[in-house]
Write a structure and sequence with these properties.
By secondary structure, the chain is of the alpha+beta class. It has seven helices and 25 strands. Strands 7, 8, 9, 11, 12, 13, 15 and 16 form an eight-stranded antiparallel β-sheet that branches. Strands 2-3-1-4-5-6 form a six-stranded mixed β-sheet, sandwiched between helices. The radius of gyration is 24 Å and the shape is globular.
């Protein structure tokens, strides 16, 4: 099976996130991208022009197209993640515009968690700063496959090629040290429109694509046939009607890989094996399904399967109650050793205990700060968890869908922490970690 990877077509979809330090011009860039790609409705543009005139500006402030909250407009900063949907004749896009402030790092984690590309903005006058490195580290942590370095405000440095080249070299080297394999640097001026949608007349020394051209042509997704099939069961279908007296199907969304009728599969965490006897999609039988299709799978044997179980083909992960993971803490309430939480993995939610916070990662230097008693909001660290029931997690580096989870407050259901099974970066490794079996269980 080949050709599943989506090329640039009108039906392909690219999810991408933008990130940049405060005043790097990120909102202006997004506004320019929407405006010049003809993705702004006439009444929206009229409202922006009216608001700009009221503020004494002659030209429309394109940043107002994205900064929707009143506090964002008043302060001139982006606070919350804003999702924008637009399309060109070549591709559809979902854009997650994330904040640049240090205290909103968690928002970038949220926005980039499903992104296939991240646009990291820098001010050509300032170059790579601490927040730039932080954004690159978060993109690497979340295994975002493609990164674009947009060197903005080139008009303020006289469109100088050496300035751009020095910034691109520094950032590319840093990103490579984090394991980011695909980095493209583009010199732009969001305010003037250089190299955003249209090629710049001021930078004839640059022969690469514009930002939109790259967004339209970058490969999307991966070939599911090269991934192990993972099918989290969301719902068990038992009509028990005269027409379907013995029908038993398992509905859900294929998280990764390809399932075919006749495939041998393992049901986790029980470990029972069987074969796929049928696949139903959109009310019709089919011989094959691939991620991210939503289908109903029928199995050859009547097994005890319920919501939260995982049907896996290929090399199946070993179910375990002891989990080591890199986490990003999202809540104002700190995460402490000994906290009892709920862990949500795909369609399964189980009780869990925070057994140890092994270390906190200094996101600026990537150093491990051991001895952390807890993680505060925006902190990224490494934890050890013990769950009440076994879970089948892939390593996050192998599978973003089945290698990720959430920690939830059992008292009120609020999300506390986003977790990624395994290590953070290839360059980051823990020291000797005690065996989890030596500690007391609470479940």
């Amino acid at each position: 099976m080949t050709g599943i990877t989506q090329e640039a077509t009108a039906t392909s979809l690219l999810r991408f996130a933008t990130a940049g330090s405060v005043d790097d011009g990120k909102s202006t860039l997004v506004g320019r991208l929407l405006h010049d790609s003809k993705s702004v409705l006439a009444d929206q543009l009229e409202a922006v022009e009216h608001a700009s005139r009221n503020r004494g500006q002659e030209a429309p402030d394109l940043a107002l197209l994205t900064d929707g909250l009143r506090a964002e407009r008043e302060q001139g900063i982006t606070i919350d993640v804003a999702y924008r949907y637009f399309a060109t004749p070549r591709r559809r896009f979902i854009l997650a515009d994330t904040p640049g402030h240090v205290q909103y790092t968690r928002n970038m984690v949220t926005g980039a968690s499903t992104a296939e590309l991240a646009v990291v903005l820098v001010d050509a006058r300032n170059g790579v700063v601490e927040q730039t490195r932080r954004h690159a580290a978060v993109a690497a942590l979340l295994r975002v496959p493609h990164v674009v370095l947009a060197v903005n405000k080139m008009d303020l440095v006289d469109y100088a090629e050496p300035v751009f080249a020095a910034i691109a070299e520094e950032f590319t080297g840093y990103a490579a040290s984090l394991g980011v394999k695909d980095v493209l640097a583009i010199p732009i001026s969001a305010l003037a429109g250089d190299n955003v949608v249209e090629p710049s007349a001021h930078m004839d020394w640059y022969g690469g694509p514009t930002l939109l051209e790259h967004l339209e042509t970058v490969p999307v997704g991966s070939d599911p046939s090269r991934e192990a099939a993972r099918f989290p069961v969301q719902y068990v279908i038992r009509p028990q009607t005269e027409e379907h007296p013995d029908y038993r199907g398992y509905a859900g969304q294929l998280a990764s890989g390809v399932l075919r009728v006749g495939d041998s599969v393992t049901v986790l965490p029980s470990g029972h094996t069987t074969t796929v006897s049928g696949i139903d999609a959109l009310g019709r039988e089919t011989d094959i399904a691939w991620a991210p299709q939503s289908v109903t799978v029928r199995l050859a044997d009547d097994l005890d399967i319920s919501r939260g179980d995982l049907i896996a083909a290929g090399a199946a992960p070993a179910p375990t109650k002891d989990i080591e993971a890199t986490v990003s803490h999202l809540n104002e309430r700190p995460l402490r050793t000994g906290d009892k939480v709920l862990l949500k993995h795909t369609t399964r939610t189980v009780r869990a205990l925070v057994k140890e916070i092994s270390y906190r990662i200094d996101i600026d230097t990537l150093e491990q700060r051991s001895g952390a008693e807890g993680l505060n909001v925006n902190d990224i660290g490494h934890v050890r968890l013990r769950t009440a029931e076994p879970l089948a997690l892939d390593g996050y580096g192998d599978n973003r869908r089945t290698g990720s989870f959430l920690l939830i407050d059992p008292a009120d259901g609020t999300t506390l922490t986003a977790g990624m099974a395994g290590e953070a970066f290839e360059t980051v490794r823990t020291d000797d970690v005690p065996d989890a079996s030596e500690e007391e269980d609470w479940v």
